Amino acid sequence: MKKYRNIIFVLAFFSALLTGCVDLFEPAIQNNRDLESSYNEPRFAQGLIINGYARIPRNGWSFNDMATDDAVSNNENNAFFNMAGGQWAADNNPLNQWANSKAAIQYLNIMIEIAEQVSFTVDNSLLDRMFADRIKGEAYGLRALFMFHLLQSHGGMSDGELLGVQILNEPQDLTSEFNVPRSTFETSMQQLYADIQRALELLPTDYENIPDESMVPEKYRALGANRNDYNRVFGEDARQLMSGRIAMAIKAQAALMAASPAFSQGNTTTWADAANFAADVLDLNNGVSGLSPTGLTWYSNAGEINNIGGGVNPSEILWRASLGGPTSNLEAAHFPPTQFGNGLLNPTQNLVDAFPDANGFPLTHPSSNYDPNNPYANRDPRLNEFIISNGRTAGPNNQVINTAADGGTNDGINRVEVSTRTGYYMRKLLRQDVNLNPVSVNGQIHIMPRIRYTEIYLIYAEAANEAWGPMGTGPNSYSAYDVIKAIRQRAGVGLGNGDAYLESIKSDQNAMRELIRNERRLELCFEGFRFWDLRRWNEELNETARGMRIQNNSYQVINVQNRVFGSYMKYGPIPLSEILKYSALRQNTGW
Q1: Residue 263 belongs to what domain range?
Q2: What does pTM read for this prediction?
Q3: Distance (Å, rounded) from C-alpha 384 to C-alpha 133?
Q4: Which secondary structure element, helix H or strand E, spans residue 186, and what is its range?
Q5: How confident is the model over 397-448, as pLDDT tens digits?
Q6: 183-207 pLDDT, tens per residue?
Q7: DSSP classification of residue 473
Q8: What residue spans of 390-542 are helical by DSSP H?
Q9: For residue 206, what is the domain's CATH number?
Q10: Which residues pair with 452 in a beta bridge?
């Protein structure tokens, strides 16, 4: 029991460092409760795993796209504005996941260790066993999730060796050895896979009520459990907790990263592995035909969002955070000035140029109908869904937004402090029925996805193309081509010509690679993927962010912000404070 008291002391100590509470130890330390208190107080015990859920990075938007070629910030004090301008450092890292993820893992490790000692019910050992299994399964799945974020943010090359992070599978206490070296990237990935496997052994695929006794898993039926027992623990009331389906999706996300060029030399995960892991999830969603027809506008499907309840997901969402709202914070940050917003994220001309012609051909292709004197005509419909360009509408009254330098409103490029710097505003993620006018302000419910199905479809397409070529299926029933065709059809691209461009490259792996990467760029824009994608692909990090200046009805592409990233910055740093404290830790090369 002394060990558990030490663990609580360590957690309290970490909390003091994070919150700066100078009165933590005297007299507040007297308010700390021994971990043994949790054994008969399930809510106290479950607070440990709640800490894991509360620390999930995708509980909110980071908008690190503003440090890529997709967007810039109009606020020069923004962390990503400064990061992209050369101020990214081991002691100045807006993308640091070290403290958050390691703290989450500490709480999860404690939960795993004590779960079977907690009384979740009153004198019902069978239900206690079932609850313990579920909560341990959740903890293993969450631990894998945080390992993924640690590897994404801090895995990298050090002295010619691809390293992961420290592997911590037991709770740390005052007697623990903290000066522990980083494991290899391969060892870290294998730990992630092992945790996913443990989660799958303990969790149902989904949390749904079962209608009859025959559906109770044999391991519980043999102990006397009935369907009511099962539904109490694993039924629909537990929706949005870590499930088998979610754990499988995390496995696919991590495998895609591991198979990518920046990491592939240091581990055994293959493109085929990543494709098959994604297919395991997609097969549960009816394969390619399961692609949500409303998935393109998942963030603004008002009827779908406003009527959601009971832990149910829209068809596009695999896993989400709790519904937010009614709120208007997102719109206040990003609406154009005439809609009473701060216009924070400004999409770049680089991204706008990535949207093809409506016929599906890239703008530079001879078969494109692109007119530089009328640049927004006959374009991929997603351009108008995701980005506000000059002459498009926004807000609850569908007001025309004029971004021209001589347009006469504060929406014009560089007109006032909160105006766009690129000639564009973000439309995606925002609910246009939010009204920020102080006279009649209103908020709306927002949905925050942790994982969207479209991401998993794109994981499959990328990995399958690399493993088996555009038309190959491996052991699955669909190809990269099949997935991309469905995604582009949903977007309304190439409908008039049978998507002739896609058809022309379906035997060309290199051309298909570029198309898949571009589709990922478009479909997932502003959702925090581009920053990590460029790095795992070993792509150019210093492409200048460009914009469009319109004056006298003339269109001029302008440079907006240079990117200043060293070649070593395809990997993120270990926090400098950790390197200074622990001699066993090796920093990634260049930092």
Answers
A1: 40-67+90-271+573-581
A2: 0.94
A3: 47
A4: helix 185-202
A5: 999 999 999 999 999 999 999 999 999 999 999 999 999 999 999 999 999 9
A6: 999 999 999 999 999 999 999 999 9
A7: -
A8: 453-468, 480-491, 500-504, 509-523, 530-536
A9: 1.25.40.390
A10: 317
